[in-house]
Amino acid sequence: MHNKVVFHAMKALRSFGFPVLRFNFRGAGHSHGKHDDGRGEMDDVRAALDWLDREFHLPIVFAGFSFGASVGLRACCPDARVVALIGLGTPVAFDGRVHKFGFLEGCAKPKLFVSGTRDEFGPPGVLEGVVERAADPKVLVRVDGDHYFAGHLDEMRNVIEDWVRKTFATDVET
């Protein structure tokens, strides 16, 4: 919740006036509960969506980083309240396995994937394959750097801001 990638993504979305909610998954930071390998964490995302909907009654743009991208994309694709998705450092290869994100093949919402050129969890070719199989519309942007965009956070933020401008051209004031 407090890492630099999440903070810069929040700043990018706030620059357009979007309400932003950052939260820790169960068992992370000072949150209650125990890590549940993504199952219970999907409920955490759904609870966050419910809160955002109750508080603001606005369409939701989801942005998640790393594990948060993995869990959030899965939870948000079928949710009608979510109108667009941003996966930052989406982990497609870890624990010796490749994760294909097959659910993205039927997810027709606008999607932005941003990953470092040297992201160990999004190796060249593997992330491109996941994005290629995902339903349109979708964009993949590689930013120089590692999984945490070290030294390139401003570039990552600019990518998000440019995509939001293009995706919501008539809806977003700059």
Provide a quick synopsis of the model.
With 174 residues, the protein is α/β, with parallel strands linked by helices. It has five helices and six strands; from the N terminus they run H-H-E-H-E-E-E-E-H-E-H. It has one domain: Rossmann fold (3-Layer(aba) Sandwich).
User: What's the total number of strands?
Assistant: 6
Give the overall form: globular
How many domains make up the coordinates?
1
Number of helices: 5
**Widest beta sheet: strand line-up:** 1-2-5-6
Please write the CATH class name.
Alpha Beta
Helix and strand pattern: HHEHEEEEHEH
Give the rounded overall mean pLDDT. Answer: 90
Between the first and last Cα atoms, what is the distance in angstroms? 26 Å
Fraction of residues in β-strands = 15-25%
Assign a percent range to the helix content: 25-40%
Radius of gyration: 15 Å
Main sheet overview: 4 strands, parallel
Please provide a written account of the structure.
The chain has 174 residues and is α/β, with parallel strands linked by helices. The chain has a single domain, classed as Rossmann fold (3-Layer(aba) Sandwich). It has five helices and six strands, in the order ααβαββββαβα. The protein is globular.
